[in-house]
Amino acid sequence: MTNPMRHSDEQICLRTAFESFDQAARALQGSYAALAARVERMDLELARSNEALRRQLQENEAMRIHLDGILESLSTGVLVVDETGVITRSNRQAARLLGSTDVELRGRPAAVVLESMGLVLDDRPQRVGQAMVTVAESPLKIQSGDRAGKLILIQDVSRLYQLEEQVQRTDRLAAMGEMIGRIAHEIRNPLGSVELFASLLRNDLSDRPAARQYAEQISQAVHAMDRLLANLLAYMKPTRPVRAWHAAEPLILDALSLAAHAIAHVRADVRLDLDPAIPAIWCHEERMKQALLNLIVNAAQAMPNGGILTIALKPDESHGLGTRAVRLTVSDSGVGIDPAHRSRLFDPFFTTKAEGTGLGLAIVHSIVDAHQGRIDVDSTVGRGSSFSIVLPHPSASFSADRSPDDEKEKKGKGGVVEEEIGEPILVEDVSHD
């Protein structure tokens, strides 16, 4: 027979166990709910963190692209160099000036690259290829202020150098011009007396032809000197010429015809490269022919063993005149110009030729300046030279659908539109450099 008290105790124990299990289950369920809520919060926080990180990466990438764009758009060449002096980055302008690419420059010592181009750290202009540059160095620092290498800055100062040369040339020419003017006037006075006495002598020697011939030669020499002095005085006091539209190709061909003797003497191969979109030039015809003649003769003389002489007419892309312009270039494949002589090319009486007077290029410069133009020189020793006349090209110029005959509706002298500015300079009997 079962003991009733023992049965009751077992029930109590069993009930107590179920109650404990229920409490543990409820506690476990609460912990699970808390853990699930925490995991959910962590998921939300992780999602927010991931979104913030994604936005930060996007901003960093946008900033990197922006900074790369700024670096590549700089007109200054930039080399990024690490602590060991090795190039880690370069921009497009640096690669262009150094004649290389960013990939080719990376990993090379900056000192070796600069030395190979003949460059040193100096704020004075140095020539690299056809450009004039300055090379400077600047420390590269990170946010903490620590140095993380350096920047080498290569600045193209070609245009500034040209402007400085022009200012110096103008100052030199002004000083020389004043002296030349005074000397020319002083020489002209006694020349008049010499011519007068030579004329009297010719009259007195009318019955002695042999002696009269000497007087004729004296008179011819006086006239030649007077023409030279007239050119010098005209060069000293240039006036802006009467400009008009003149067909480009006939003007250039006329100048070539005038220079035929010099071209034939050296067996030069003449080539024309004329842009058909520029049928006419706004200039004084005779004076522009004179300028072209001087440049063509100089080009021929620079090729004693023959070569290629090219005359090109193109739009000017430099915008150096501040207005629409054309570029008329005379190029040769001759001996080139010594860099030591470049700054004196247009000085009166400067010449490297045994029989030259040094007035040819000086007259060219005067003519171009009178046209409110510019003359650029590009030369490499042993490879040849290019002289480019940059002339204003007014907006009312000829176009492809507008022939020179159409312009005759605007009547000017000779049936073309003219701009009356002043009397032209007489340029005759000019000796070339």
- State the CATH superfamily name of the largest domain: Histidine kinase-like ATPase, C-terminal domain
Neighbour order of strands in the largest sheet:
2-1-5-4-3
Largest sheet: 5 strands, antiparallel
CATH class of the largest domain: Alpha Beta
Q: Please tell me how large the radius of gyration is.
A: 41 Å
Please indicate the count of domains.
3
Mean pLDDT across the residues is 80
Q: Termini separation (Å)?
A: 148 Å
Reading the helices and strands in chain order gives: HEEHHHEEEHHEHHEEHEEHEEE
Count of strand segments: 13
**CATH topology-level name of the largest domain:** Heat Shock Protein 90
Structural class: alpha+beta
What is the 3D shape? Answer: rod-shaped
Describe it.
This protein has 433 residues and is α+β, with helices and mostly antiparallel strands. The protein has 3 domains: 85 residues, PAS domain (Beta-Lactamase), CATH 3.30.450; 76 residues, Helix Hairpins; 177 residues, Histidine kinase-like ATPase, C-terminal domain (Heat Shock Protein 90, 2-Layer Sandwich), CATH 3.30.565. The strands form 3 sheets. Strands 2-1-5-4-3 form a 5-stranded antiparallel β-sheet. It has a 5-stranded mixed β-sheet with strand order 7-9-10-12-11. Strands 8-6-13 form a 3-stranded antiparallel β-sheet. Strand 3 and strand 4 form a beta hairpin. Helix 9 runs antiparallel to helix 10. It is rod-shaped and about 185 Å long. The relative contact order is 0.08. The C terminus is likely disordered.
